[in-house]
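User: quick one
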Amino acid sequence: MILYRVRHTTAYEYQDDVEISHNEARLVPRELPHQKLLSHEMAIDPTPQDRDECGDAFGNRVRYFAIHAQHRALRVKAQSVVRLEACAAPDLEASPPWESVRDLLLESRPLPDSAHAFLYASPLVPIAETFREYAATSFTPARPLLVAVRELTARLHADLTYAPGSSDVSTPIQEVFSNRRGVCQDFSHIAVACLRALGLAARYVSGYLETLPPEGRPRLTGADASHAWFSVYSPGPGWVDFDPTNDLRPALQHITLAWGRDYSDVPPLKGIILGGGQHRLKVSVDVERVGGDGTAPA
Amino acid sequence: MADDTGRPGALLADYRPLAGTYDECLSTDGAMRPAWRPLWRALETMGGTTLQQRHREAVQLFRQNGVTYGSSQEPAGPQRPWSFDPVPMLMGNEEWGRLERGLVQRAEFFNLLLEDLYGAQRCIAEGVLPPAVLHASPDHLPPCRGLRLPFPRQLVFYACSVARAPGGGFTALGDHTRLPLGVAYALENRMVLARVFPELYRDCQVQRLSRFFRASRRTLAELAPQGGGNPFIVLLSPGPDHESYFEQAYLANHLGFPLVEGRDLTVREHKVYLKTLAGLQRVDVILRHVEDRHCDPLELTNDSRWGVAGLLQAVRRGGVSIANPLGCTVLENPALRAFLQPLCRFFLGEDPLLPSLATWWCGQPREREHVIANLERLVLRAIHAPRARPIVVGRLALAEREKLVAALRREPHLYAAEEPFPLSTVPTLEGGAFLPQGLVLRCFLSAGREGYSAMPGGLARVHRHPGDETPEALGSWASKDTWVISAAPEETSEALMGDAKHTLKIDRRGSGVSSRIAENLFWFGRYMERADRTARLLREAIVLFLQQGESRRDAALAQLLRSFYGITRIPPPESPAGADGAPDARSAQERELLRLILDAALEGSLLHDVQAMASAAGAVRDRISSEMMRIVNDIVDGLERIASPAEAVRQMESVTLSIAAIAGLSMDSMTHTEEWRFLSIGRRLERALWNVALMRASAAEIAGANDPYWETLLRIQDSIMTYRWRYRAQVHPDAVLDLLLLDESNPRSMAFQLVNILKLVEDFNASHQSYFRSTEERVILEALARLRLSSISRRELFPDPSAYSRYLTQLLDGWIELLKGFSSALSRAYFTHSKAARPLLLRS
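Assistant: Done. Structure below.
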């Protein structure tokens, strides 16, 4: 068991006055069997005139806020305390052959966990032959689903270069894939695209990752970032997470915020503004252990 | 003559239905079907010549009313005149009754399906509908899950395209839930037909359309979140660039709702407001003509410029109602029709009364194999690209077909196939003869508390090649009115006025003027005046050109054109034409004059100004009377007919007259509220600017007291009569300047414009209860003060002409600066709301 405190600050500075800004934030960590949310607070400056909270179609908590007063800067500070429990890792070898999972999803019977909602093309993840071909190498006949996914994760980690700034939200993933350079969102989108191209259900997960400083160096506050990984549907355990950016199975260092079909369903903060001109953005994320039984990270 | 035995008369003597197809009018033995007999009796009495004459009248009416399909922004673009056939499609009461019952049941069914797909999804959980049909459709919008209207039915408007199957019964070809498209065209067809064939329409006992529109409006009012009272309903339009903008403006006008665009609206505290000049006005109900996914850039497509940020949350919190509800395009998914029967049984416990086109969803293995084996006969629809054209497999080349089969095998769940049938035919006038053309009928329904009601008949569309099915865009077909013949005459009232049971709060301001409307009216006024000035100036120029040969006139013409180039900043042609009066120079000059009138791409040409005026008018179509709109359209038509200078003189005069008529209508038929003030300010400002610019362009001539130009100047400024009356034949520069600039009683003078603009601006401040002088007010005051205190008409005060010329130039330049400053102050104060919002997305 580990206790984390996550501080996530987003600051916009605008060149001109912003007259109106409407925003939605997905900054509240989800409640999961292995993840408990102990506290959450969110501070917004300037104070919004409208605030509201709802659940979205995927069960994520969404905060709406709107600011109608002229402003030149916006700062959103979210702070959450989360407890993660170790849970038994699924036995990859014991998962069913991947083709049987594909065929199960092809059948028209509804499945638990709304797997069908994550089976098709979504706004940022097209279904394309390129991804199917790439994935096919790992999905050999009758291979257990999760073994194949684990290998796909490792191959993506090996074949793609993590390169901050090499892409942005509007870069199509085919382009990222042909350049073989991207950030965690791209790694996850590509993995999701590979799985869906094979007829498997995969979802995009938005969250945080605890990063540890290199040996002998002090921890730097605010140096972390929001993170992304993916989940694949496997009958039995249900959704199983994989992190292609770090080539591992998320366990006690990944804090889940939200999930959806792709990033466009779950950006941590999204806004529409009137006015403003050019803007500068500064994001700082700080994931800090504040307690626990010292279980070593996986 | 069609007698009671049903033999067709002379008009249909050569009409031959196609072998093996059902004809709506004639049965297989060649006899006329009973419902059609009274109509054809009347048409035969009228005779072919009169019929064609009336057809031409109808075409003219559509054109005058500006009925088009396509974008109004690109003159050469896809905007097309509405194509209309004068002989209506007919249906007997009984047959219509059967069809109507089928349509109503289908609407009830789709309503329940919609509720379920965005609610509990029982039909999926219980295995009636495969999950893929919902989740693979891009029109399924997860953020819309759980939205509900405060009304017993969620699907407010529903349209269904039907055609007659060879067996004789009607079959549904397509379901339209995205936007209620076509309904205004049906109404306009009826209005025009009833006008050109009043006797036919009266005698045939046609069921009226007005009840349908009254019911629709009542339903929209009942959707209001708070209920009761006089809810504020707006029609949300994607703007004049949209292909069915005509329809939106027409509906808004007919139903009496303001036509608004996304940027006119704002969301606060989960309520929607219209941004008006007088502040925010609460909107209760939105009749939506913007596609689902473009309605809220925050939660749906974030790069949409048509939507309103926060709209979805406002709907979720019950702050506003939208019809049709967001997300309902999901019902247009063609794969749903493959499951219509089991779904209909699931929701209603009954079989569909109206059959659908045979449809197979390729996500099921047996159905997929059937489709692949029978591709030739089928039309394929992709459910992931719902707006893409259906694929008629029989027309594909072999290689394309193989690619298609491969795609179909790779992702079969993305395709549905339909088996079309040959359309029934109906007599349609083409090149003076009646030909059998294929018929598709689009029927319209609206929800009420007790159930759905259908518009009697609908929009009939006929297609030249009855064997060729499916192109579904409205524009690619000709249309017909559809008459449902009632057994007994109906009470006649096409009026839309509601019942007077509710008390209505008297409101003299009317629905608030949005900033965008104010801006468009301002520019409508400016372009109207600019076109008038340009027409007057070019008329003078052409008259001088036609009288050419006399050196005085040549000099006047050259000076006039110099002024025009100066004012409009149009670059003059390389070699100044017509200097020596040689024939080729003369024809070059003629070409140049016609270019200044007719080159629409040339900013400053008459046609350019007139088109800009028409486009500003089009953008506020619901605020401008149909007479005004008609005159605007006529001006454009008239200009396009000009071929010779002599014809041009007549057309210039008619432009001037038409604009005077529009100005008169704006004085007499628009209420003198804020929107009218913007139109007036626009006209006055442009008139003042032209006046000063014209003087500035000939400052040297004025200072030098050169004679030949004065009369022309007075004529262009429409002040020659006044001048002659005052001074008779004696032309003196000081008198001319006094009349054109200083005389506050001359409606053409600069002083008159400034005094009136000041009054209009002061009225604004008074109605907004502001006691400070605004920037725009100060600027006008300064311009007026400089004018009143000037010595412009007293050249005797100056030592020599060059000193006078310097003074004149400086003064005129100062006014031009001030007037431009006024225009920008006005737009800062009133028009900035119309800025577009933009998205910010965060990503680390």
